[in-house]
Prior knowledge:
The protein has helices at 3-24, 26-31, 41-54, 61-75, 78-87, 92-118, 125-147. The chain is mainly α.
Amino acid sequence: MKLNAILTIGFIGTSFATVWHMRYHKVVKQTYNKDQDTFRHYYLILLSLGLALLIPRAFTVIEVLWAFSIYLEAVAILPQLVLLQRSRNIDNLTGNYVFLLGAYRSLYLVNWIYRFFTDLHRVRWIPWISGLVQTALYADFFYYYIKR
Length: 148
C-alpha cells in the first residue's frame, strides 16, 4: 500500500473520530448550543455535489469525488464562521484554531503560485478557485482576529 493511501486512511479515521467526539462526548455536548447552530450544512453538501457533477476535471467516478471533496472543503468552514459571528464570544482556543486553519489555507495560495512557475505553467482551475473562495471566507474572520 502506498504511503499516501495509508496517510489518507489515517486522516479519514481521525476525522471521523473527531466528529464522533464532538457529537457524543459528554464534555463537548455540555458546551454545544443548539439554538445558535442553525446553519443548514446540507445545502453546502448539495451545492458541492452539484458543482462536482457539473464541473469535474473529467467525468469519471474518481474525478467527480475529487472535485466534490475540493468544493466541499472550500465551504466546510462556513458553519463554524457563522456560529462564531452569532455567538460573539470566541474563546482563545477556538479563535486561534480558526485563524491557524485559515492561515494554513492561505499558504496554499503561495504553494500554487510557486508550482505554477516551476511546474510547466499548468493551470489547475478547480483547486485554485476553490482555494480562493475558501480564503475569501476567512477574510472577515482574519480582520476581526487581528483587530482583537
